[in-house]
Design goal:
Elements (H helix, E strand, L loop, with lengths): L3 H21 L4 E7 L9 H15 L5 E7 L2 E8 L3 H14 L6 E7 L8 E3 L18 H7 L4 H15 L1
Antiparallel strand pairs: 1-3, 1-4, 2-3, 4-5
């Protein structure tokens, strides 16, 4: 179990690391893989299975370099590509939308147009796509998260069903 403070600190560290990687590897696009798991437990048997499936799917895209971090605050995979960020985002979205566990993965793509420039996140909207939908209903996931429309247990039960069906 992790605290909200630990989760927020891990996000800050992740964002800083993303920027460092892009500064050290100019001209590369960065794909960051995390697992979407609600609640205070971010590492368990389900998250490990989702992370492994995500790593395998991303490796099939041919990254030039990767770094994997299996942390109590959640899995983090950093994959550098010598490819345009927009094209990489299209491939990441294809994984999120077509892989049996894709809805449980967060595949964020970042670029840095030149050394010293701010890191840019490439969104689904940059591809003309709508937001991701909630696991349990047809609303945007952002809405349900903010409104706490569903309980953590309802979401975890749905995630377990998805993973068990995939195995």
């Amino acid at each position: 179990m992790i605290s909200l403070q630990e989760l927020l600190e891990s996000r800050e560290v992740r964002v800083a690391h993303q920027g460092e990687l892009l500064q050290v590897h100019p001209g590369c696009a960065l794909l960051c893989l995390t697992v979407q798991l609600p609640g205070p437990e971010k590492r368990n048997a389900l998250s490990v299975k989702i992370a492994r499936a995500g790593v395998q799917a991303v490796r099939e895209l041919g990254p030039s370099q990767e770094e994997l971090r299996d942390l109590e605050t959640g899995f983090e995979g950093y994959f550098l590509f010598k490819a345009p960020a927009l094209a990489l985002k299209q491939k990441a979205v294809a994984i999120e939308d077509s892989h049996p566990l894709g809805r449980l993965m967060d595949l964020d793509v970042f670029s840095c147009p030149e050394p010293g420039a701010p890191v840019q996140a490439i969104s689904r909207s940059a591809l003309g796509l709508s937001e991701r939908k909630c696991l349990l209903c047809d609303r945007p996931v952002r809405y349900c998260m903010r409104a706490r429309t569903h309980t953590v247990q309802e979401l975890l039960d749905s995630i377990a069903q998805i993973v068990n069906a995939w195995e």
